[in-house]
Amino acid sequence: MGFDLGILFGKLGSSSLGSSEYSSVVSMNLFVALLCACIVIGHLLEENRWMNESITALVIGLCTGVVILLVSGGTNSHLLVFSEDLFFIYLLPPIIFNAGFQVKKKQFFRNFMTIVLFGAVGTVISFTIISFGATKIFKKMNIGTLELGDYLAIGAIFSATDSVCTLQVLNQDQTPLLYSLVFGEGVVNDATSIVIFNAVQNFDLSQITTAVAFQLIGNFFYLFITSTLLGAGAGLLSAYIIKKLYFGRHSTDREVAIMILMAYLSYMLAELFYLSGILTVFFCGIVMSHYTWHNVTEKSRVTTKHAFATLSFIAELFIFLYVGMDALDIEKWSFVKDSPGTSAEVSAILLGLVLVGRAAFVFPLSFLSNLTKKAPHEKIDFRQQVLIWWAGLMRGAVSMALAYNQFTKEGHTTKVGNAIMITSTITVVLFSTMVFGLITQPLVRLLLPTPKTLNRMISSEPTTPKSFIVPLLGNGQDSDLGQNVPRPSSLRMLLSTPSHTVHHYWRKFDNAFMRPVFGGRGFVPFIPGSPTEQSVIQSAHHLVGEETG
After folding, report:
1. Does residue 280 lie in a domain region?
2. What span, in angstroms and rounded, lies between the C-alpha atoms of 279 and 284?
3. CATH of the domain at 135
4. Residue 506: which H helix or E strand, with range?
5. Which end of the chain has the lower number of beta carbons within 10 A, N or C?
6. d(CA 305, CA 289)
7. What is the C-alpha to C-alpha distance for residues 234 and 213, in angstroms, rounded to an integer?
């Protein structure tokens, strides 16, 4: 991670540390202090219907950038230099993992096909529209030299939704259907956008043939399946290790440590093998919450739940504070100071393409999804479609990271066209996060105002930590549901009640094969000296007494 303070702390080098090292220490102190300020101010604004902690952190980052810019005489605006490695390797994994760990699994898997439809097919549609629009419009403008690969990269960059901001502006308990659709789509969307972006950089775009197109499609399916299997495999391995070795009999710290490290290892292995770390760690979180979490002691369950949530919370604040300060990077803006109107125009065009590109797949694909659902309450009505369209308009750190990768070299650029694309990306990210993010929650209250609508959407899963005690595709209160579900006698009947049918057969397979090996709900760790051991001993004595009597 690089640090850059410039003139602001140049006079503070009179320490036992070197000048650059001392500046780095000061930078980290200020940044941690700003994170604390974000938490305090976010708490004070908890009841505010417009603000949330992500927007608070973004605003504080912008204000801090302005102060640093003024103090440094206009030479610097941030404490940290934007680093893709810092974002993708250290900040994003805990956020995505915790989302998978806490997600309402019944709602997520019930809408899994719709999520994949939006996240994969929808992203390709959005990418096509944005790339085509950018190519046709920007070639007529004087924004510097951009090649075909740059235009396609623009499509991939602005097709990537902001999953992190979705976690902040949507409430999983109040709107579980919207949350599962928008966030689930966001995870698949980010993976798809990164696949497309890497393909744009690696393939020879001068010779695009049908074979290359099919190769791209095959590459995506390979990435999706292998990343999912890797995440599930890491989660199952952690469950098996903890179930067999009983770490908790000696130390709960080891249980917590192995869960955290195995989750992070799954992400790094995915990156090592050029897979999607986002998909891998997300499904690792889902599997760990279904199996591994139930194999640890009660103390470790409480610890891991809060530890994962805390790490995710801090990483989210870090990202928004980071983006806020980096938005005023004077180096990029200096290239467009002679033509601010052009930069604003490019930003407005990109924002318009984002709006059109998302609308082009949300409404048609929602219609197709509704055709497969028979029950009216399972269909996505028009108001919900509007909210899905709106909540997915926010662009965030993923777009920033991809833009820096395409249009800068080690965070710096010398071309006017590249600088305009960077500043336009920053503008779109700030505008979409602050404006769309601010309006999302009031829009939810406006379009879904009645308790009847909300109750229909709210999942039957409890919101307490006991929500982890539910089966992967069901809840804790419908253990006999499968007995009342009619068996599919035809393909049409199978398609008309897919979730119940899949749920029934999955639960039978889970109970018969998975839980005996990997543990899960109902598994109680046997720890010497614990109440569990004492109750087992008492039961054994009671049985022995009955037999001898």
Report:
1. yes
2. 8
3. 1.20.1530.20
4. helix 498-509
5. C
6. 9
7. 32
Q: Tally Cβ neighbours within 10 Å of residue 382.
A: 10
pLDDT for position 351: 95
Look at residue 109 and tell me if it is in a domain: yes
CA distance 352 to 167: 24
532 found inside a domain: no
> Which range marks the domain in which residue 370 is found?
84-289+329-450
Q: Find, among 395, 387, 396, the residue nearest to 440 by Cα.
A: 387
Q: How many domains does the chain have?
A: 1
| Token pair for 222 | 């390979």
Contact 291, 109 (CB under 8 A): no
Q: What is the pLDDT of residue 85?
A: 82
DSSP class of residue 173 equals: T
Q: Which amino acid is at 250?
A: H
Using an 8 Å Cβ cutoff, are 360 and 129 in contact? yes
| Of 94, 102, 116, residue with least CA distance to 281 | 94
Report pLDDT for 77: 66
> Given the structure tokens 């190519």, which residue do they identify?
135
Please give the backbone phi and psi of residue 80, each rounded to the nearest 5 degrees, phi first.
-120, 140
DSSP 410-422: TTB---HHHHHHH
Alpha helices in 432-530 (DSSP H): 437-447, 451-457, 491-496, 498-509, 515-518
DSSP class of residue 329 equals -
Measured distance CA(124)–CA(325) in Å, rounded: 31
Q: Would residue 521 count as lying in a domain?
A: no
Instruction: Report the distance separating Cα 399 and Cα 193, nearest Å.
Output: 9
Say how far apart CA 162 and CA 115 lie, in whole Å: 15
Q: Which residue from 114, 157, 46 is spatially nearest to 432, judged by alpha carbons?
A: 157
Residue 412: φ, ψ to 5°: -125, 155
Q: Hey, is 213 helix, strand or coil?
A: helix
Residue 133 pLDDT? 94
User: Is the Cβ–Cβ distance between 471 and 507 less than 8 Å?
Assistant: yes
Tokens of 53: 């902690």
Q: Which amino acid is at 153?
A: A
Instruction: Please report the pLDDT score of residue 543 as a whole number.
Output: 39
**pLDDT, block means (10 residues), the chain with 549 residues:** 46 54 84 91 76 82 86 73 80 90 82 89 93 91 83 92 75 78 86 83 73 80 90 95 83 89 95 90 93 91 92 89 81 73 89 95 93 82 92 87 82 78 90 87 80 46 41 38 45 48 75 87 57 44 40
